[in-house]
Specification:
Number of helices: 16
CATH class of the largest domain: Alpha Beta
Number of domains: 3
Strand order of the largest sheet: 9-10-11-12-13-17
Number of strands: 17
Shape: globular
Structural class: alpha/beta
CATH superfamily of the largest domain: Metal-dependent hydrolases
CATH architecture of the largest domain: Alpha-Beta Barrel
Amino acid sequence: MITKENLLFLFGLLFLASCSPPSPAYDTLITNALIYDGTGEKPYLGSVAIKGDTIVAMGDIEGTAVNMVDAQGKALAPGFINVLSWANVSLIEDGRSLSDLKQGVTLEVMGEGRSMGPLNEAMKAEMKEDQSDIKYDIPWTTLGEYLQFLEDKGVATNITSFVGNGTLRQHVIGYDNRPASPEEMEAMKALLAIAMQEGAVGLSSSLLYAPSRYADTQELIELAKVAAEYGGIYISHIRDEGDQLLESVEELITIAREARIPAEIYHLKASGQHNWHKLDSVFLMIENARAEGLQITADMYTYPASSTGLHTQLPEWVREGGVDAALERMADPTQREKILQDIHFFHPPQNILLVGFKNPDLRQYQGKRLDEVAAELGKPAEEAMIDLMVADQSRIQVVYFSMSEENIQKKIVQPWMSFCSDAGSYAAEGVFLTSRTHPRA
């Protein structure tokens, strides 16, 4: 029964509602922004409305929001994808991912040739031994468990990973330089399939480094076929970025063709001045493959210097079996003389910048060129290089100045080119200050 009092109460509620301002339509409304919408079209001035975790409107928008932001004409774009990130360890130390997030990166794609899973106990022990300033436990085994570990820990960016063929090889074969047996191939395929089911985005290789480089083309094709079954892609640090550049690009195209899988070249470059002219031929090879219907792409970092280990200057036979095996050979007096005789620098010592040591006593040399340090030690560059790596018990992180600014400009404008840091994501504080890094980070 509706009483007079009930009616008065309802009329009162209606009156209050009519007097109250309407609820904001959005959680966040960014106005006066120069919008780059991701389509490749020219930017335009407008607004972006967000409700929850979703962009619900874009363009000429009217309405209110809990959080109103005037962009004052600044550029506004979708989050950037770092297609080659080495944040897999730095995110364990600091999940804020500051050096990438402040550049607009919202997705870290990890796993260049090596991934954080699948692991066995021997691999976990090696990872623990190789840790430098960042110390961490390894409670995960599979790649999916690692990604969940980071998510549970809390990271600012989205994360995903390729499965490294080097990780698969080490898991099943170790560091042996030989073809995989049929049984070993099946084991690697099974591990790859599990990782793809866990959410990996494809198969990666890093064919300059052991044990990834011990895989022949056919092995890579067979593994890539598994990734293709799950909609993945094949991505590769190709076998040689210098003297055998064209042959290495052809290998990637062959894998894409035979496995029927999209393929991308990691950090495309022509390394060494005598190889700079080859880049135009690489462009032609990629364009021809794309005309054939193959989905061939590449990524790059926008600097004329690369960064990797000093150990890549060692002869092939010294590097056999990985970094630990190379360190043992260099420390052996009976092998030292032959190693010195066989060293032929791919990059002149004056173009090699030392940036990362494990041994704190050697960090006085960070930021110096190899030729400078050799002069300080009163030794030839070859001897200084060996002595430093043995003393540091590491491959020593270096920067190689080996590329052409003109080629960088040529690469940037290719429509099939994307961008990467090929580095961790750091903060300018704490443990990250113990070593130097490449500006691409």
